[in-house]
Amino acid sequence: MRKPIIVGNWKMNKNNAETKAFFEAVDAVAASENATYGIGCPFTDLRTAQDNAKNLIVAAENCHWEDSGAFTGEVSVPMLEEIGIKYCIIGHSERRQMFGDTDETVNKKAKRLLKAGITPILCIGETEAQYDAGETEKVIRDQLTGSLADLCAKCVGSMVIAYEPIWAIGTGKSATKEDAQKCCAIVRDQVKVMYGEEAAENVRVQYGGSVKPENIVEYMACPDIDGALIGGASLKEASFIDIIEKTK
Ligand SMILES: O=C(CO)COP(=O)(O)O
């Protein structure tokens, strides 16, 4: 049985004081046997988040694949490990579109995180033009082929994969539950093609893109959707609490 996992992605938002206030308001509500709740936050907030989290899991939003060296502005996996981080978002479409992340570099990040026992939350998803051209399935399979190359089946089974159609991110134009289910099933099938039945059964697949309290329940009812990656609606304490209460 896959345990649902719902994670907020704050992106480049919130300072330390805001992080502390958020965790003080939300952490106790996130206690649940049935689901995992968490927040991905900027590097500068990670320690504050960790210090104030008993129930919420804390995720970094990126990492570098090398352990140290001349990589100005980057943060390594051992640095995340040292402060107890257990999850890390990789390959978010904003990083792919604006900061040059590719399936190849995302794959290197996944390998290094898995070696450290940190769970990658791997993001994939098509652009609006690809959606309109009917290329969604091909894009999903291609991105997974590259991003999940040369891993072990058990490792892949332990991962979280977030299907986030780019046209649904921050637009309020969320995918229909039928489309989201169909694409999350394609994600699971591609894991099966690459790593077999058990990895496909175990991998947790999230939907992301304009998820909010009003639509979370219908996504979570879909058989291949095990959670959500949530941007805007994770920034306000009240809406994230609402999401938690509707899904615990
Ligand atoms: O990018 C996202 C999560 O990673 C989704 O963002 P929104 O929930 O704001 O659409």
UniProtKB/TrEMBL annotation:
State the reactions this protein catalyses.
D-glyceraldehyde 3-phosphate = dihydroxyacetone phosphate
Q: Where in the cell is it found?
A: Cytoplasm
EC numbers for this chain? 5.3.1.1
Q: Which GO terms describe its cellular component?
A: cytosol
SUBUNIT field: Homodimer.
Gene Ontology terms describing biological process: gluconeogenesis; glyceraldehyde-3-phosphate biosynthetic process; glycerol catabolic process; glycolytic process
Main function: Involved in the gluconeogenesis. Catalyzes stereospecifically the conversion of dihydroxyacetone phosphate (DHAP) to D-glyceraldehyde-3-phosphate (G3P).
Say which family it is in. Belongs to the triosephosphate isomerase family.
Organism expressing this protein natively? Faecalitalea cylindroides
Q: What Pfam families does the database record attribute to this sequence?
A: TIM
Sorted alphabetically, the keyword list is: Cytoplasm, Gluconeogenesis, Glycolysis, Isomerase
Q: What is the top EC class of this enzyme, as a single word? A: isomerase
Single Gene Ontology MF annotation: triose-phosphate isomerase activity
Provide the primary localization.
cytoplasm
This one is known as Triosephosphate isomerase
Q: Where is the active site?
A: H92 (electrophile), E164 (proton acceptor)
Q: Where does substrate bind?
A: N9, W10, K11, G170, S210, G231, G232
**In what pathway does it function?**
Carbohydrate degradation; glycolysis; D-glyceraldehyde 3-phosphate from glycerone phosphate: step 1/1; Carbohydrate biosynthesis; gluconeogenesis
- Can the keyword Protein biosynthesis be found in this entry's annotation? no
SUPFAM superfamilies associated with the record: Triosephosphate isomerase (TIM)
